[in-house]
Amino acid sequence: MDFAFKNMLDIAKMTKESCLDNFTILDYLFDYVNGKSQSNGQPWEGCTHLYIPVLANAHWFAVEINFAESTVYVYDPDKSCLTQGQLQKFLESVCYFIPLLAKSVNILVQDKVQVQRVDGTVK
């Protein structure tokens, strides 16, 4: 998973909120999920976890999306950089689009994805 994917989720959410035509962006996201994007060689079908590097307020952390648990796990060694509210706000686009995109390739995910901070490192 590359960093550009999170940016595309943010752009898709902004265009949805501003009522602009976002079919091109959604097409790009569906191509990404199906492995047809130039920056992603593997389709999501059959995946159980998804990992995304995230940059927020000049601070990097890792996100693990566990499809079976419908949970976004946040691995951040410096928890003082973002409050839980800031983290929730920053990951809104992930929580909104991941169920839609996962379901497009028959991955079962709840419509409501929760965000949970994790102590330790990515498994």
UniProtKB/TrEMBL annotation:
Annotated keywords: Hydrolase, Protease
In terms of InterPro entries, this protein maps to:
Papain-like_cys_pep_sf (IPR038765), Peptidase_C48_C (IPR003653)
* Protein name from the UniProt record: Ulp1 protease family protein
Recorded source organism is Abeliophyllum distichum
Q: Which Gene3D superfamilies match?
A: Adenoviral Proteinase, Chain A
Domain of life the protein comes from: Eukaryota
Signal peptide (residue range): none
* Occurrences of domain Ubiquitin-like protease family profile (ranges): 29-118
Coiled-coil ranges from the UniProt annotation: none
Q: Does the keyword ATP-binding apply?
A: no
Q: Which GO terms describe its molecular function?
A: peptidase activity
Q: One GO BP annotation here?
A: proteolysis
Please report which protein family the annotation says this sequence is part of: Belongs to the peptidase C48 family.
